């Protein structure tokens, strides 16, 4: 089974420890070393750059995004292994309303990249915003959409068809994406069609390096390697995030039926239609209606809505679909042979300061002091779950990665996972033997308290 490695790092100031671990991971893998030794390689580094700060605390950002110390260490190690030739593309598609410039300025990242460009003049280091559109919001409502500079390598449409985890799913026709017009997401997920629009740089690269953050997530329980792949898509409204209604009706928007939830659901749909069909006036009406609704029904920091709970049976499927598209698709929109080699992949998880509670946008910082590295996203997410004090089998996004499939993500079972854990003297440790990174583990999102019972 694919192996994962854990490192203990006291803080982001210990750059020697971070660099040493990352360089050791890359340098000790013969396959990656041989791959990078070739000329004119394109390597994509995909951090978790969801947005520039905590949703409610603009000065807080370290528990939210992959720290520049880790990302820079990855770029440095890759540059050395590539002999200073080829292209390293650091890229992400943050939230549509995020400030990309503010993200790449965090922790002096842009200045560090300039330093590396001087050190390796024959190496191209790109920083790309993969979004095709940027939104301006007021009171949580989109009031303007601006075209964004697109991925210079274009975008790739990939259809998983009957191999999608949405094929035959009972939510068909009632998916909600990222924008007010739900017709878009349902046009791309119906019958035998289940397609995604993915950025060309990740699809064209010779090596994909994932640098996620160790955090809780309101829709999938945790966000690590698997969920971080949402940031390679070219249109977030092609992505099903939840299914409208309650489980009794085949949905996962709310956990149960109530008059208040019924009224809220009706008013949300009506408000979105007005905002979409009558720009300006419609968005103003929707903003005021949302404000009144929040006062009457509670905000999303305390009330479960929009699929933000452990019963969400939609979002994890989307994330695993995208992982399969990256691993088995190519830049021409075609598929590799089933059972054949996948796209070369490596991940370094930033858990030095993790995020617990109301993740991914409003987490509390956790001094978890770990880095995790390995070649398989399913394996690393299983290790991440254990380090957070969660049962991997209770998380559909993790357990689903181990389910047999034409396009497998993690081969074998959770019981096959072996980890090199320095807390056990660097011995190989089975998954079940991994202790939480902090006493008692991470506090889950309030819609995922079931994880406490299953740990």
Describe what you observe in this structure.
This protein has 455 residues and is α/β, with parallel strands linked by helices. It has one domain. Helix content is 30%, strand content 22%. It is built from 14 helices and 19 strands. Helix 9 (259-277) runs antiparallel to helix 10 (281-297).
Low-pLDDT windows of residues: none
Number of strands: 19
Class derived from helix and strand content: alpha/beta
How widely separated are the two ends? 23 Å
Largest β sheet strand count, sense and barrel closure: 12 strands, mixed
Round the Cα radius of gyration to an integer and report it: 21 Å
Q: Number of DSSP helices?
A: 14
Assign an overall shape: globular
The portion of residues forming beta strands comes to 15-25%
Helix share of residues? Answer: 25-40%
Mean pLDDT: 91
Number of structural units classed as domains: 1
Brief summary of the model shown:
This protein is of the alpha/beta class. The protein is built from 14 helices and 19 strands.
Tags for this model:
twelve-stranded mixed sheet; three-stranded antiparallel sheet; single chain; about 450 residues; alpha/beta; about 30% helix
Reconstruct the topology from this structure.
Blueprint: E1 3-8, H1 15-27, H2 30-36, E2 42-47, H3 68-81, E3 86-92, H4 100-105, H5 109-119, E4 123-129, E5 133-138, E6 141-147, E7 155-159, E8 175-176, H6 182-187, E9 189-190, E10 193-199, H7 200-204, E11 207-211, E12 213-217, E13 221-223, H8 225-228, E14 242-243, H9 259-277, H10 281-297, H11 315-328, E15 345-358, E16 362-366, E17 370-374, H12 377-387, H13 396-399, E18 418-421, E19 427-430, H14 450-454
Parallel strand pairs: 1-18, 2-3, 2-11, 3-4, 11-15, 12-15
Antiparallel strand pairs: 1-17, 5-6, 7-10, 8-14, 9-10, 12-13, 15-16, 15-17, 18-19
